[in-house]
C-alpha cells in the first residue's frame, strides 16, 4: 500500500459546499466528573503570573531542569494554563472560527465554520493537499501545511484571511519548541524532522532517525528538553533532544504498528500514543522511554485531545465512528460517544470553553461537533473533499507547540 493510501488522502473533492445539517441524535452520556467546569479567568502572557496562575512552584519530577526560555509550568500540570476561557491577550481580537483543511489530492482550500451557528461561512484558497492548520508559537498566526505545493500558507486569525505563503519542502505537520526559538517541520515524505527558524522557516538542522519512516506527529516533555515523534510507516517512536537535535532513543512497536497522534499526560510522566495499526492506545514512560501500558481501542485511534480540566483524554476512533473518553487517572475508557449512522472522526480540537470537541470526518466530507458534557453530537457539517487537521480557534493557553493547537 502506498503512503498516500495509508494516510487516507484518496477521497474525491465534492463540487459544492452544503450548509450545516445539525444532528441531535442521542448517544451515551458523559461521565459525571466531566460535567464540572472551571470558572474562566484572564490568562497571562508567556512567563507572567496572575491571580488565577500564582508564581510557579519550584520545578520537580518531570518538570525539573526546564528548557531555558520556556514559560513556567502552572501547578505541576502540563495543561495548567489551558483552563476554560483563559485566553491570552494575543488572541483577544481573533475571530472565533473552525478552520478545516482539505487533504484530498486535488484539495486546495480551508473551509471556515462559525462555531456558534455551525454553518460554513467561507473558504480560503491555500496550497494543494493541505494537511493541518497550525497556530504559531506566539498565537498571532495560523499556518496551513500544504504538502504537494511545498508551502506553509500563513493565515490571519483576526480576519480569517490568507496573508502569504512560505516555501517549505513537503510540510505534513508543524511544531514549535517550548522556548519559541525553533519551528519543527515534519517532512513526512522524505523522512526528515526539520528544525527551522520560527518565522522565516529557514532550516537549522535536518534530523533523520534510524529506521524512522514517515515522521508526522509529536509532543514535548514536561520540561521541554526533548520531543517524541511518531513514525507512521515504520511503527516506531523517536526521542529527539530540543537543543542538540540528537536522537536520544528509538522505541519500536512492531510491524503492524502505525502510530499517529501523541500527547503527554498532565503530570508529565507518560506519553499516550494512538496506534491505528494495532487498535491500541499505548503508554510510554517519559523517564525511561519504554512502553508501560496498552489499552485496546475500538478501531483506528487517531487524534488525542485533553479535556480542559486535565482529567480526560478524548480519542477519535476513526474506524469505529466514535470517540473514546479515557481517564488519565485509571487509564481506562470511561465513556464512548457514537456518531449516529457512522462516520470517520479524525483530527481536531476542544473549544475554548471546553464544552465542544470538534473533529474532521476524514472520509465523509463532514465535520463533527460533540457536546463534552453529554457525549451527544451537536452538529455534523458538510465540507468539501477530505477534511483533516482542523483547528479550533482561539484556544486557551500562553503559547503553541503546534499541530492543530497543542497549547500550554
SSE map:
Elements: H1 3-7, E1 97-101, E2 109-114, E3 119-125, E4 130-135, E5 142-146, E6 151-156, E7 161-167, E8 173-176, E9 183-187, E10 192-196, E11 203-207, E12 215-220, E13 226-231, E14 236-241, E15 247-252, E16 259-264, E17 270-275, E18 280-285, E19 291-296, E20 301-306, E21 312-317, E22 322-327, E23 333-338, E24 345-350, E25 356-361, E26 366-371, E27 377-382, E28 391-393
Antiparallel strand pairs: 1-2, 1-28, 2-3, 4-5, 5-6, 6-7, 8-9, 9-10, 10-11, 12-13, 13-14, 14-15, 16-17, 17-18, 18-19, 20-21, 21-22, 22-23, 24-25, 25-26, 26-27
Pfam families: YNCE (PF21783)
Protein name: YncE family protein
InterPro entries: Host-pathogen_enzymatic-act, N2O_reductase_N, WD40/YVTN_repeat-like_dom_sf, YNCE-like_beta-prop
Structural write-up:
The structure is a single chain. The chain has 408 residues and is an all-beta fold. It has a single domain, classed as Methylamine Dehydrogenase, Chain H (7 Propeller). It is built from one helix and 28 strands. The strands form seven sheets. Strands 3-2-1-28 form a four-stranded antiparallel β-sheet, with no helix packed on it. Strands 4-5-6-7 form a four-stranded antiparallel β-sheet, with no helix packed on it. The chain has a four-stranded antiparallel β-sheet with strand order 8-9-10-11, with no helix packed on it. A hairpin with a 6-residue loop joins strand 10 (192-196) and strand 11 (203-207).
